[in-house]
Amino acid sequence: MRGWGTLTAICLGTFMLLLDVTIVVVALPDMAGALHASLGDLQWVVDGYALALAALLLAVGAAADILGRRRVHVAGVVLFAVASLLCGLASGPGLLVAARALQGIGGAAMFATTLPLLASAYEGRRRSAALGVWGAVSGGAAAAGPVLGGLITAGPGWRWIFFVNLPVSVLAVWLTLRAVPESRGPRGRGVDWAGTAAFAVFAGGATYAVVRAGEDGWTARAPLTSFAVAALALVVFVLVERRVAHPLLDLSLLRRPAFVGTMLGSFAFNGVAFGGIPYLSLWMQTLLGLSPVRAGLTLLPMTAVSMVVAVLVGRLLHGVPARLTVGGGLLLIAAGTLGQAVLDAGDDWTALVPGFVLVGVGTGFVAPTVAGAALAAVPAERAGMAGGAVNTVRQLGYALGVAVFGTVLTSRMTGPLPGDAAHTLAGGGAGAVRGAFPEHTLRAAFASGLNGALVVAGLAGIVAGTLVLALTRTARPTPPTASGTVREEAVPSRG
Length: 495
Hints:
The protein is mostly helical. It has 22 helices and no strands.
């Protein structure tokens, strides 16, 4: 099988991988009811996937260079399919979260090998065309996730958002084995498993600490212990990276202000733009009474605008300094997020539309240019590492954003509501507390919590955008030209 068989196989895997970042958002209320899940459980349903993806992305990419990229990609698709089956069969929130983390491991194997496989299979104009199609599929998956999730949840049920991955995975494996040539990276490169383990403990510990702080308070033993473990893991990570022969991250890059600014911008991007969406979906379905389909459709103004703007930015603003596209885009995202923080008890979802549009415009500026900014800020031989770091911190930022905003949401709701009632309501259990409180009180409490979370997100976006403008003065977006550079290019998606 020749021609575009490789592109079709890779795009199938990419579509599944990115779809599962967003498809669960509108299914969270149904999951909570079916599995008796708490708000913390729902946060981990989202975060378990993103954290596994972030923790393993760089290491799996290095391992694929040694073992063979096609082989690792196929293994990732198979693992993703098995994990999807386990997600659909989960009988409790713990099993679902564990299966989601397993999905993230499979997703990391797919994500880390996607672009190098394309780069090795196509050259010249065919490579540019393949990357363009792949980018469109990536953006389409992000946009389609909430809508497809709503349709499936309202139809056969939320478990089928995972079951549908099975036939797609079979087709992706068959096409990959038939059409994708094997490729490997430079010889002599090792895998920094010690650094990977330390980073995973840091990311997981920090996220767990924030989630538990929302349940127990910031000064409780569990979050303080988790913060301490995360801090220790970060110290270990730094020590390992300074000594290992092939580090995940060359710490000398952190002496470059442009690289630091780009990393900060990448970290804030996904968290600020998308970290509050799970809670907006819960609000729309549990208190406004929207169906899963309608809740998914409410996000279309943001996703559609971001895709259109991204295309225009790629065509019209090539060569514009990255400090303007990334930093300015983050400020637009911050403005849009703050523009959503205007809810009260009588509002419906239409109050969010102006803010959604602004976030979409900002996302259209940041998504296609942030990877180029990272590549331009480092020496050419570190381009692959820089691109992989962008993808990693984007996923980590999303996971921490979901955790932080959930904690802020519940803390703001405990004024008009007792703590237990606030957590139940925030977790999608409006029916369980409706008899004890007037409807107006419940809507006002949730709106207050959402406003608080959105304000925190907006302020974080302002800080990040300002830092990018200040630090990335020397970075310029540069298109990928070599296979190593292409391999780690950031995916234009919200995951």
